[in-house]
From TrEMBL:
Domain Plant heme peroxidase family profile: 38-341
Cofactor(s) listed: heme b; Ca(2+)
Lineage per the UniProt record: Eukaryota, Viridiplantae, Streptophyta, Embryophyta, Tracheophyta
Cellular compartments annotated: Secreted
Enzyme Commission numbers on file: 1.11.1.7
Family membership: Belongs to the peroxidase family. Classical plant (class III) peroxidase subfamily.
GO CC entries: extracellular region
One MF term in the entry's GO annotations: metal ion binding
One Pfam match: peroxidase
Residues the entry annotates as binding heme b: 203
Reaction(s) this enzyme catalyzes, per UniProt: 2 a phenolic donor + H2O2 = 2 a phenolic radical donor + 2 H2O
Protein name in the entry: Peroxidase
Length: 348
């Protein structure tokens, strides 16, 4: 049976290929990365150390999200920047001139203040040094996604916070990379092809800076021409927002929505995938996933079934949130997310 409404040239053989990809992913553990297997659902409740921790986090996120819907994109990006570099240990939150948050790739990260607000509440309601910053970040991202339209998936808990953070660790790739390089990066972190295609779908929300797409607009692969895979109407629109003659400092500050039609609403939708199909993806790596067989089939599936995308984003977020976590005697539970306890100026 052909996929209804999308590219009828794809036959039943192609659709079977998609199903097989799902089966291998489901059978492979529903697969948390190895370090994540020590995490537990309702960890704080079961240990009776903060029974209502998830309710406290959810309330705070709702309060701030109601004032600024862009909070969802900011929290998801912050979680990605943490987990994909040195594991989900909240090292992205540590202050210092040479820490991860000050790496060039992390320019423009936000939502730090929201994590601080939640941490302050939990230090008061649950007691000092009970709930880790790493768990707070994972819970807050989940709750913000849910408010935007994603499912409220269970977050496994019990992470400890890292003891150091180095800008030199940050290896986040350019958004202009090929699908081969993007997939290799995700696989190097312990994620798979479906995580790659699924987590990129978070680009249905948020903005990017003009300097990240300038090459696609004006000098693709040093040809002096635009990316030939970009739809002409999108090219013209983006060139108006990111003029070729703009000063570099202005170019870096100017931002555009990743899904121009729905961007201002910051809703979680599958519009990202329909944009990829119609060659209207803003970032280069997003358009690239149309050109690999496996990711192409996932693009078609998610564009045709929002519910399937909602289901799979839950699993991929859980898998990302379990990368290289610290548990047990590793790490610590920070009293302040900006400082390790040893360097915390507020602890006497």
């Amino acid at each position: 049976m052909e996929r209804e409404g999308y590219l009828n040239i794809f036959s039943l053989v192609v659709i079977v290929g998609v199903v097989s990809l799902h089966m291998s992913r489901t059978e492979a553990a529903i697969g948390l990365p190895p370090d994540g297997k020590s995490l537990r659902r309702q960890y704080y409740k079961k240990l009776n150390i903060c029974v209502n921790v998830e309710a406290y986090v959810k309330h705070q996120v709702k309060v701030y999200w109601s004032k600024d819907h862009s909070l969802t994109a900011k929290l998801v990006k912050l979680l990605y920047a943490d987990c994909m570099v040195n594991g989900c240990d909240a090292s992205i939150l540590l202050d210092g001139p040479q820490t991860e948050k000050n790496a060039p790739q992390n320019a423009g990260l936000g939502a730090f203040i929201i994590i601080d607000k939640i941490k302050t509440v939990l230090e008061d309601r649950c007691g000092p040094g009970v709930v880790s910053c790493a768990d707070i970040l994972n819970l807050a991202a989940r709750d913000a996604l849910h408010l935007a339209g994603a499912p409220s998936y269970p977050v496994l808990l019990g992470r400890k916070d890292g003891l150091e953070s180095k800008a030199a660790w940050v290896d986040l790739p350019s958004p202009s990379i090929s699908w081969e390089a993007g997939l290799a990066y995700f696989q190097s972190k312990g994620l798979d092809v479906q995580d790659f295609a699924t987590l990129l779908g978070a680009h249905t929300m948020g903005r990017t800076h003009c300097n990240y797409i300038w090459d696609r607009l004006y000098n693709f692969n040093n040809t002096g021409k635009p990316d030939p895979t970009m739809d002409k109407s999108l090219l013209d629109k983006l060139r108006q927002q990111c003029p070729k003659t703009v000063k570099k400092s202005q170019e870096q500050n100017q931002t555009v929505f990743l899904t121009p039609k729905y961007g201002p609403s910051y809703k979680f939708t599958n519009a990202y995938y329909t944009n990829v199909i119609s060659h209207q993806a803003v970032l280069g790596v997003d358009q690239q996933i149309l050109f690999n067989y496996d990711t192409n089939q996932l693009v078609l599936e998610y564009a045709g079934s929002f519910e399937q995308f909602r289901k799979e984003i839950s699993l991929s977020m859980s898998r990302m949130g379990a990368l290289k976590v610290l548990t047990g005697n590793k790490g610590e539970i920070r009293r302040n997310c900006h400082f390790t306890n040893k360097n915390n100026p507020y602890i006497k």
